[in-house]
Specification:
It is a single chain. The protein is of the alpha/beta class. The protein has helices spanning 39-46, 94-97, 140-143, 146-158, 175-186, 198-205, 218-225, 244-247, 271-276, 291-300, 319-324; strands at 2-8, 11-16, 27-37, 62-69, 81-84, 123-127, 131-133, 168-171, 192-194, 213-215, 233-238, 251-259, 280-283, 310-315, 328-329, 334-335, 344-348. Strand 9, helix 6 and strand 10 (213-215) form a beta-alpha-beta unit. The longest helix has 13 residues, at 146-158. It is globular and about 60 Å long. 49% of the residues are buried. The structure holds zinc ion (ZN) (2 copies).
Length: 356
């Protein structure tokens, strides 16, 4: 089997390995069909989010078919269509037992595509609790967005808007930005998405929920979405990592700033402002209790049209082109603003056979 191996910043190889097979009683081996490139992968590859161990197979947003199971597995069978939950947790540590499974202290060595071999590969091995059946009517390429949507649900759960009339902004129209727009809309908010890349703006334009909008600047979002050039910043979701410093002083009293970008970026902020103006500065990462099943429900019920956020499907062998579509130029070792109308880019190990 082929697997996309990470050796260090900018250093990836598509490597031949022996096929993964079940080892433990409860193991499930999945033949991967689609695996999405995530901002986390870009951070790992460019060195700006240095969390992955050298030699690991990247990729954590995947769907496929069950290829083999250990003797103790009863919940899925060979051939079943499944989506992979890539972040196992132990359920026994203090973090897990106090509602913070996303910070399980025993996660090291089990996080797919970071410290455990991920799914940019023909095969991926996990245990039965971490594969979820995908209904036949849902394309596997759509279900590949379950994990990012699950992370978005974790963040949305932490936002406590003062009112459903709260002026809500999402900065960045990448996959997470658009999924935030959908998930926030389902809670009753009416977000404005702000995106400076013309190509991304064009892609996002008709892929947003009915009462959301997409604008090239904050000024335009205020004027056109909220009909007020001075519209307050009540709820801000920053997918870019760089907006805390400029936007915190502009946040409305009682406002919330949710930071979910994983780019290292130092900011200086005034704690007095946070107290005096009752601001909430919060962060969110990964799945929390039940968010994965909730995300899969939103996709299978059609409440979030995940398939419409897929901009590219490319063979795993062409991974360089896939990363390039997101502005990550492996050959030149540089990130550039994406010139393509890219959103979720999926890599598929078997280009010819995959139409689902
Ligand atoms: Zn991801
Ligand atoms: Zn734990």
């Amino acid at each position: 089997m082929k697997a996309l191996k990470f050796h260090g910043a900018w250093d990836l190889t598509l490597t031949d390995l022996l096929d993964l097979e079940p080892v433990g009683d409860d193991d499930v081996v999945v033949e991967v069909r689609y695996c999405g490139i995530c901002g986390t992968d870009l951070g790992i590859v460019t060195g700006s989010y240095p969390v992955a161990v050298s030699g690991v197979t990247l990729g954590h947003e995947a769907t496929g078919l069950v290829a083999a199971t250990g003797p103790g597995v009863t919940s899925v069978r060979v051939g079943d269509r499944v989506v992979i939950d890539p972040t196992p947790y132990c359920g026994r540590c203090r973090m897990c037992q106090t509602g913070r499974i996303n910070h399980c202290v025993n996660k090291h060595g089990t996080e797919s595509g970071v410290s455990y071999d991920g799914a940019f590969a023909d095969r991926y091995r996990t245990t039965s609790a971490f594969v979820h059946p995908v209904p036949d009517h849902i394309p596997l390429r759509a279900a590949a967005l379950t994990e990012p949507l699950s992370c978005v649900i974790s963040g949305v759960r932490k936002i406590r808007p003062p009112s459903l009339a709260a002026n809500t902004y999402v900065f960045g129209a990448g996959p997470l930005g658009l999924l935030y727009a959908w998930a926030l809309s389902l809670t009753g908010l009416t977000p404005a998405v702000v995106e400076c890349s013309a190509a991304r703006l064009a892609f996002a334009h008709d892929r947003l929920p009915a009462r959301a909008g997409c604008y090239p600047s904050l000024a335009e979002a205020r004027a056109r979405h909220f009909n007020d050039p001075q519209a307050s910043l009540d709820v801000v979701v920053d997918t870019t990592s760089v907006l805390l410093e400029p936007l915190l002083p502009e946040l409305a009293c009682g406002g919330t700033f949710l930071s979910i970008g994983l780019k290292r970026h130092l900011a200086s902020i005034d704690p007095m402002l946070i107290a005096d103006r009752s601001l909430s500065v919060i962060g969110s990462i990964d799945s929390t209790h039940g968010s994965f099943a909730e995300a899969l429900h939103l996709i299978t019920s059609g409440l979030v049209p995940a398939h419409r956020l897929v901009s590219h499907v490319m063979p795993l062998a062409d991974y360089r082109k896939g990363f390039e579509a997101l502005g990550c130029e492996l050959d030149h070792r540089r990130m550039t603003p994406s010139r393509e109308a890219s959103c979720k880019v999926l890599l598929t190990p078997d280009a010819a056979g995959n139409t689902q």
